[in-house]
Amino acid sequence: MPGLLDVILGYDCNVACDYCTITPAMRKRALTPAAVVAAMRRGRAQDYDRIAFTGGEPTIRTDLVALIKAARQLGYDDIKLQSNGLLFSPANVARLVDAGVTRFHVSIHTHEPQAYDALVQRAGAHALMEQGLRSAVDSGRHVVADVIIKSDTYPRLAQAIEWIAARGVNEVHLWYVSLTDGNAEHVESMPPMTEAMPEIRRALAIGRARGLEISSLHIPRCLLGEDWTHAWDPGSMRVLVVTPDATFELEDSRLAGQNHVPACAGCRFEGICPGVRDDYLARFGDAEIAAARDQAPTLPGVVRLPTIASR
């Protein structure tokens, strides 16, 4: 069965997002070029026909173009590059497209310049990101904007979707902040899903109206309500993740939903919903899921979390 090989080249980055799960110790770890090529060869032997280069920030690697060319030569039909876009000058994007990139994913943490620079902790970063996004769109390749939902970004999510749509982006993925590893102690960064849902619904409606393909990656369908068709579970696909530390199926990742609570029993989505993430249940318990199913909660939330291994 065809599938996606998701290669995390390394954990180092040229920004320091305030919600990042990557710790300082992790930033020192990266795959060698030989290890990447070996993983790509194994992937093709196992019928993986798509590949994603992610990080950290993959564009800071001097061997990135060579690795993309190797992926194309090995026969990967679809080559995705995930980036913050700060190094996406027109010339760099042209080189990446010539090497074989078929789609760009650009992280749009928030659309407001001052808030963006504060979030990534780098002055002038928003201008670079916006130029990079423009270069990616102008390349003619498919462009996906990855948007983070956290306590200080969700109130302006609808405006962010308008901003993204106005720049010719094809698709938007909404990522719910994770309380793992480097962000484990920042529990205030994660809002309750039901608190964020009104703004998320406005954002989804704007996306539909503007012709965007817009998906929510971590909110259970029961909480999305009538917008449940926007739910997308990447782990439902055949995805093999290769990192500097381990190789594993995406469905086994702690960053994907893995828990079905008692209220999930009998839900019409039970067979397709992966459940709720560990970090979310530890923070808020199952009260929201139970309420959506007209049941009593069974799991209490807590204020602080232990560090959860990044897998």
Automatic annotation (TrEMBL):
Protein's UniProt keywords contain S-adenosyl-L-methionine: yes
Entries under Gene3D superfamilies matching the protein: Aldolase class I (3.20.20.70)
Which residue ranges does the record assign to the Radical SAM core domain?
1-213
What this protein needs as a cofactor is: [4Fe-4S] cluster
Record SMART domains: Elp3 (SM00729)
For this protein, the record's CDD domains field holds: Radical_SAM
The superkingdom listed in its UniProt entry is: Bacteria
Recorded GO molecular functions are: catalytic activity; iron-sulfur cluster binding; metal ion binding
Keywords tagged on the record: Iron, Iron-sulfur, Metal-binding, S-adenosyl-L-methionine
Q: Which Pfam families match?
A: Radical_SAM
Which positions make up the signal peptide? none
InterPro entries in the cross-refs: Aldolase_TIM (IPR013785), Elp3/MiaA/NifB-like_rSAM (IPR006638), Radical_SAM_PqqE_MftC-like (IPR050377), rSAM (IPR007197), rSAM_sf (IPR058240)
| Key word Iron-sulfur present | yes
Please give the name of this protein. Answer: Cyclic pyranopterin monophosphate synthase
> What organism is recorded for this protein?
Enhygromyxa salina
The encoding gene:
moaA_2
